[in-house]
Design goal:
By secondary structure, this protein is mainly beta. Helices cover about 5% and strands about 30% of the residues. It is built from 3 helices and 20 strands.
Length: about 280
């Protein structure tokens, strides 16, 4: 059997694919890779369908040994990639022989690296996805040393490219948003959101917690719980927003002032604590 043995998961590594959308009515979040564009790219480079499961490694650090030959690709922020000590770049197809060990370094910027292996990670799917949902606990457990992950049979040809640009993870982000549905619950929501925020260390796959000048409520009282989507900017009584990411709860009782444009979610997935964010309402 083609397998990958985890020698060191690094700081935090999860199996993720493109998620399980369509189950919000059951209280199940979409989950999936936070930087979906990087996982799609890694899969293309490794010769997989874009929907194949890979590994999302927080701040790199992953080390794994292979029982069979494979093609691998690492994407996300630029990061050192080595096979048995021989250096390769990220964002390129890398051949690995049976018995060899792949090791990722730590990216200088950004948060999440994505490892795709030819054939894809073939753990048992739950509700049609192999993704870990950290809020509900659905999907495979976080990886630990000694885990052995089955690999599916390769079906495609690795896709090389002359130049593949790594993810940029700047210290300042301008994030486009659509105001609403509860922007009328705040005084000057557009001005407040565009004033500037800082990502805090309490952020995770559920959401980014932000610090800054609190938004002022224009409406007192409580809001009945209602559905929320990925990218929703929910504002608790503190006035400090939380941007919901892929493992968010499917309902919430705090007003949502705006929703992040889908195309901007990949950049938020790479925002380290300390990153400065300014929302741009449209």
């Amino acid at each position: 059997m083609r397998c990958l043995e985890v020698l060191d998961p690094g700081r935090y590594a999860l199996v993720e694919d493109l998620g399980r959308p369509g189950y919000a009515h059951l209280g199940v979040a979409p989950s999936g890779a936070l930087d979906a564009a990087s996982l799609r790219l890694a899969n293309r480079l490794a010769g997989n369908p874009e929907t194949a499961a890979g590994i999302e490694a927080l701040l790199g650090g992953l080390s794994a040994r292979f029982t069979a030959a494979a093609t691998v690709a690492v994407t996300g922020p630029a990061v050192a990639v080595s096979v048995d000590g021989r250096a390769f770049g990220s964002h390129v197809p890398v051949p690995v022989r049976a018995g060899q060990t792949l090791t990722l370094g730590t990216p200088a910027a950004g948060l999440r690296c994505y490892l795709a292996v030819s054939g894809g990670i073939a753990v048992e799917p739950v509700l049609g996805s192999r993704s870990r949902d950290v809020l509900s606990g659905i999907g495979p457990d976080p990886l630990k040393a000694g885990d052995v992950l089955p690999l599916d049979v390769p079906v495609g040809v690795p896709a090389g490219a002359d130049v593949v640009v790594p993810v940029a993870a700047p210290a300042d982000l301008v994030v486009p948003v659509t105001l609403g549905p509860r922007d009328d619950w705040f005084d000057d929501p557009a001005g407040g959101l565009s004033a500037g925020w800082t990502v805090t260390a309490e952020s995770n796959r559920v959401g980014l917690r932000l610090d800054g000048t609190p938004l002022r409520r224009a409406v007192d009282g409580e809001l009945p719980s209602e559905g929320v989507v990925t990218g929703a900017i929910q504002v608790p009584p503190s006035g400090l927003p939380v941007v919901f990411l892929a493992d968010h709860p499917t309902t919430g009782g705090y007003p949502v002032a705006a929703v992040v444009k889908t195309a901007a979610l990949n950049a938020l997935a790479q925002a380290r604590p300390g990153t400065r964010i300014r929302f741009r309402p449209s």
